[in-house]
Amino acid sequence: MQDQNHKAGFVNIIGNPNVGKSTLMNAFVGERLSIITSKAQTTRHRILGIVNGDDFQIILSDTPGIIKPAYQLQESMMDFVKSAFDDADVLLYLVELGEKDLKDEQFFNKITNAKIPVLLLLNKIDTGNESLLAEALAHWQEKVPNAEIFAISALKNFGVPEVFARIIELLPKSPPFYPKDQLTDKPERFFVNEIIREKILLHYKKEIPYSVEIDTEEFFEEENIIRIRSVIMVERETQKGIIIGHKGGPLKRVGVEARRDLEKFFGKQVHLETYVKVNKNWRSDNRQLKRFGYNQK
Ligand SMILES: Nc1nc2c(ncn2[C@@H]2O[C@H](COP(=O)(O)OP(=O)(O)OP(=O)(O)O)[C@@H](O)[C@H]2O)c(=O)[nH]1
C-alpha cells in the first residue's frame, strides 16, 4: 500500500564548474548510504543520483550547458534550460566562497525569478574565515533575495545534513518516481558485479560460481567511455585455473558478454578489464563478507 505521506521530487543542482556538485552528491549519498543511479539520461535532465529513504525519494540532477556563455546557447538550448527550471521542485544553486561573478545574466535572471524554492549553497566555507563568510552571505542575500542561503562545506560534510533536511521539507507529497527497492543501496559497481557474476553462473559448473565474488576496483566514467576494472575473486588456486580456462578462452567469453550487457545498461561504451585473484577462504572471513555486503552486522 502506498504511504500517503510519502514525498518525492526533482532537485536540480546548478552552478559553475568545479564548485563542488559531485562532492555534494557524495555527501548526500554517503550520508544516507543510498545510491547513485546508472546516470540515466532523460530528455530533460541528467540524473546524478537518487537518494531514497523510507518516506522520501530525492532525484538529483544537473543541467549541463546551462552555465555556458550565452552566445553558445541556441534556441533549443534555452527551451531546455527553461524546462529544467520549470520541472524541478527545488533548485540548489551552488556557489563557492569567493565567487561573485555572474557570467550569464539570462541564466541568473532565471534563478532570481524562479517560481520554485531556491536554496543557495555557499560551498567551501572551510577555505575562508569569518569575515569572508559574512561578506559572501551579505552579497548573495542581496543578489538572490528569493533564495534561502546555507553555508556549507560539502567536503567536510558541514551544513549538508541541514540542507538535506530542508529539501525533504520542501518536497511535495508524491509516490516515488523510481522503484525504491531496486535502487536502494546499490551503486553502479554493484550492477557491474552482478552482470559479471551472471556470466560466471552461466558458463561454469555449479561449485565455481559459489566460490566467486566480484570486486569492482575501478569505475571511471569519461565523456564517451566507462573504464571498469573488476577482480574475480576465488578461494583456491585450482579455481583460478578453471575460471581462466583453456588458453584464457572461457574468461574472455565472460568479459565479452559482460561488456556487451554493461554497455546496454549504462548506455555507453565500456572498457572492461577482468582479472582473477585468489583470496583464500574469503567465504569464512567475516571482514571480507562484510566488505562484499553479505554480513551487515
Ligand atoms: N576545500 C573544499 N574543497 C571542496 C569542497 N567541495 C568540493 N571541493 C573541491 O572542489 C573541487 C571540485 O569539486 P567537484 O565536486 O568535482 O566539483 P563539480 O562542481 O562537480 O565539478 P564539475 O563536475 O567539473 O562541474 C574538488 O577538488 C573538490 O575536492 C569543500 O567544501 N571544501
Q: Could you characterize what this model shows?
A:
The protein is of the alpha/beta class and 297 residues long. The protein has two domains: 7-181, P-loop containing nucleotide triphosphate hydrolases (Rossmann fold, 3-Layer(aba) Sandwich), CATH 3.40.50.300; 187-291, 2-Layer Sandwich (GMP Synthetase, Chain A, domain 3), CATH 3.30.300. It is 39% helix and 24% strand. It has eleven helices and nine strands. It has helices at residues 21-32, 75-87, 105-112, 130-143, 160-170, 180-183, 188-203, 207-211, 237-244, 249-266, 286-291, and strands at residues 7-15, 46-53, 56-62, 90-96, 118-123, 147-151, 213-221, 225-234, 269-278. Strands 2-3-1-4-5-6 form a six-stranded mixed sheet, with helices on both faces. A three-stranded mixed sheet has the order 7-8-9. Strand 4 (90-96), helix 3 (105-112) and strand 5 form a beta-alpha-beta unit. Helix 7 runs antiparallel to helix 10 (249-266). The protein is elongated, with a radius of gyration of 23 Å. Bound molecules: guanosine-5'-triphosphate. InterPro entries: G_ERA_dom (IPR030388), GTP-bd (IPR006073), GTPase_Era-like (IPR005662), KH_dom-like_a/b (IPR015946), KH_dom_type_2 (IPR004044), KH_sf_prok-type (IPR009019), P-loop_NTPase (IPR027417), Small_GTP-bd (IPR005225). GO terms for molecular function: GTP binding; GTPase activity; ribosomal small subunit binding; small ribosomal subunit rRNA binding. GTP binds at residues 15-22, 62-66, 123-126.
